[in-house]
Amino acid sequence: MNTDHHVILRVIAKMLIPVITMFAFYVQFHGDFGPGGGFQAGVIIAVAVILYALVFGVSAAMRAVPPVFTRSLAAVGVMIYAGVGFWALLQGGHYLEYQALFHEGPGEHHGQHIGIMVIEIGVLCGVAGAMLTIFYAFAGRVAEIRDEDW
Amino acid sequence: MIDAIMNAAPAWALTHAAPLLVMVPLFLAPVLALVPNGRIAWLISIAATGISFLFALVLLGLVQTSPIGVVSYEVGRWPVPLGIELRVDALNAMILLIVTTIGLLASVFSWPTVTAEVRKEKRALFYSAFLVCFAGLNGVALTGDAFNLFVFLEISSISTYVLVALGAGRDRRALPAAFNYLIMGTIGASFYIIGIGFLYAATGTLNMHDIATRLPELAGHRSVQAGFAFILVGLGLKAAMWPLHQWLPNAYSYSPSFVTMFLSATATKVALYALIRFLFTIFRPDYGFEISAFSSILMPLGIAAMVVCSFQAVFQTDVRRILAYSSVAQVGYMILGVSIGTTEGLSAGLFHLINHAMMKGALFMAVAGVVLTYQGTTIRDFAGLGRSAPWTMTAFAIAALSLIGVPLTAGFQSKLQLGFALFDQGLWWAVGFVVFSSFLAVIYMGRVLEAVFFQPPVNPRKARKEAPILLLVPLWILALANLYFGIAADFPLGLARDAAAAAFGVEAFR
Q: Quick count: other Cβ atoms within 10 Å of Cβ A16?
C-alpha cells in the first residue's frame, strides 16, 4: 500500500497527459492562423513526457520514450527542415523557396502552405526531441528520490 | 585549378553554391547523429567538408569572374532587404576557402586522434557536432544578414562548447574550460545581439548592405555609436582580442587535439572576419568614432596582445598552452593590421590571418601526433622527439619557424607586409613592437625546438614512433604550404589584397 499515497497525482496526471498532447497538436496546426507553431508545440509535447517522468519516475519515462528515440527525433527534425530546402532546390527553385515546391505561378499558394507546414513539423520534432534529450541528460544524472523520502 | 573546377561544375552548382556550402554539412550533421558507427561518420564528415571545399572554390571563382565582385543569393527568393541574403565578395570567399580547407584537412587527419581520445559510443556524435560547428562557421562567413550572422555564430559556438567538453575523457579540466568558454562566448554573443538591436533601432533593417547604405546620415546618432561599441566588444570576445581572451588558453589546452587544431585555425578567424566586416563595410573607417576606436582601442590592444601574451607564452611549460597564448598574440598582429585603417594595413592583417591558419594548423596537428604516440604535451615530453619522430617534428619545426617569421616562410611574408603598412603611416614605433614580439616568439618556440632536437629523451625507452600516415599527410601539406607561400606569396597575398579592397567597398581589382 506504500506506493499508493500519491494516487491522486497519478490519476490526474494520467488524465492530463493525453490532453496536453492533444493541445500540443492544436497549437501546432493552429499556428497557421494564430499564435503558435512548431516550437511551442514541441515544448508542450516535451512537457507531457516530463510530467510523466515527474509523477511515474524517470526510468518509467525512459522506457516509454527511450533517450535514443528523443535524440533521433531531434536529428530527424533538423533533417526535415533542411530537407524542405533541398526539395525546393530539386524542383529548380532557390533554397527554401516554397513557391517552387509544386512549380506554382504567382497566384497559387499550395507550396507556401505545405512548405511551412512541413517545416513546422520539423521544428516540432527537433524541439521536442532536444527538450527531452536535455531533460534526460539532467534527470538521468541524479539518484532518483525514493518513495519513502517524499 | 579554380578555372578547371569552374568549367567542370554543373549549372546548378554555380547558382546554388552559396546555400549548398552551408547546408550540405548542416544536413549531414543530424544524419551522423543517427549513424551508429564512428568510422562511417568519419568518412561522411570527410565527404561533407570536401564538398564544402569544392563549393568554396566555385564561389571564389565566381567572385573573381563577376563584374561587380559580389555573388548574392536570396534564400527562399525573398527580395533582398526583407529576406535573408547570402552575400559573397572577395573577403568572404577568402575566409570560406580557409575554413573549408582547414576543415577538410582536419577531418582527414582526425580519425587516429579521435579513436584515441573519444569514447567509442560518442564518436559519431562527435563528428556530428564537428559538422555543425563547421557549417556554423561557414554560415557566419557567408551571410549578408546581421541577425543571421548571430544565429550562425551561436550554432558554431554551441557545438564548439560541446567539442571542447569532450576533452574530458583525457583531462577533466576540459569541463571547467568548456563552461568558462560557454559563459564568455554567450556574453560575447549577447553583446553582439544588443549592438544589432541598437543598429536595427536606428536604421530599421538587418541586411548588412542595407545598414551600410543607411548609416552615413545617422553616423552622429547615439544609438549607432552604442551599437558599434557593443558589437566591437562582443565580436572582440569571440575573436579572443586581448584582454577578452581569457577563455582561449584553457579551451585550447584541454579540448581533444583535433578540436584544438580545427578551432585554432578557424574559429577566431571567423569572428575576426565578422569584426572586419562591421568595421569596414558596415561602419566606414572614416566615421569619427571609428577613427578614435582604431587609434585608442584597437591599436593599443593589438600591441598589448602581441607583447603580453608572447611574454606569457614564454613562461608556459605545456606546449599546447604556449601555442594557445601565441594564438592570442597572433590575433594581436591581425588587430594591429586592421587598426591602421588603410587598405594596406587591412590586407596585411588578412594575409597574416591566412598564414596563421596554416602555421597554427600545422603546429597543433604535430602536437596531436605527439599526444597520440607519447600521451604528453609538456616540453619535457617533447625532449628528444626529433630523433624518434623526425617527420612529425620537422613539419613542426617548419611551422614554428613560420610562426617566428623566419625569411622564406609564410610568417615572414605577412610580417613584412604588416611592417610596410605601418611604415606607410609613419608608425615606426609599432614596427619595433612587431619585431620585439617576434623576438619573444623566438624564445618560446626556441624552448620547444631546443628540447625536441638537442635534448636527450627523458624516457630512453621511447622507440622510433612516428605519427600515423593519416596524420602526416595533412600535416605535411600545411607545412609545405608554409614554405611554398613563404617563397611565392602571390596567391594568398592576392586573396588578401582583393579581400581588403572588397571590405572597403572597392571592386576587387586583379
A: 15
Q: Please judge whether A83 and B31 are an interchain contact, meaning their C-beta atoms are less than 8 angstroms apart.
A: no
Q: What is the pLDDT of residues B125-162, one digit of tens each?
A: 889 999 999 999 999 999 989 999 999 999 999 999 99
Half-sphere exposure of B237 (CA within 13 A, CB side): 21
Quote the domain boundaries for residue A103: 2-141
Cell, residue B209: 548592405
What DSSP letter does each residue of A89-106 carry, written as one string? Answer: HHTTS-TT-GGGTTT--T
pLDDT at B488: 85
Is B122 contained in some domain? no
Would you say residue B373 lies in a domain? Answer: yes
Asked whether residue A121 is assigned to any structural domain, the reply reads yes
Flag whether pLDDT at B465 surpasses 70: yes
**So what's the ipTM on this one?**
0.84
Rg (CA), chain A: 19
Cα B236 from chain centroid? 13
Question: SS3 of B229, please?
Answer: helix
Count how many domains chain B has: 1
CB contact under 8 A, B30 and A89: no
Residues B257-271: tens digit of each pLDDT: 888 889 988 988 999
Q: Is residue A83 part of a domain?
A: yes
**Hey, what's the cell of A92?**
529548380
Question: Containing domain of residue B423, as a range?
Answer: 285-510
Residue A53 C-alpha, separation from nearest chain B C-alpha, in angstroms? 25
Which amino acid is present at B458? V
Assigned domain for B311 exists = yes
Q: Give the residue from B279, B326, B257, B10 showing the smallest Cα distance to B118.
A: B257
Smallest Cα distance from A23 to chain B, Å: 28
CA distances from A47 to A73, A133, A134, B143, B275 (A): 15, 12, 12, 35, 40
Residue B320 neighbours by CB distance under 10 Å: 24
A146 part of a folded domain:
no
Residue B33 forms contact with A (CB below 8 Å): yes
Q: Is residue B2 part of a domain?
A: no
Phi, psi of B318 (to 5 degrees): -95, 130
Per DSSP, B88 falls in state: E
Are the beta carbons of B350 and B280 closer than 8 angstroms? Answer: no
Number of domains in chain A: 1
**Chain A interface residues (partner B, CB cutoff 8 A):** 71-72, 74-79, 82-83, 85-86, 88-89, 93-100
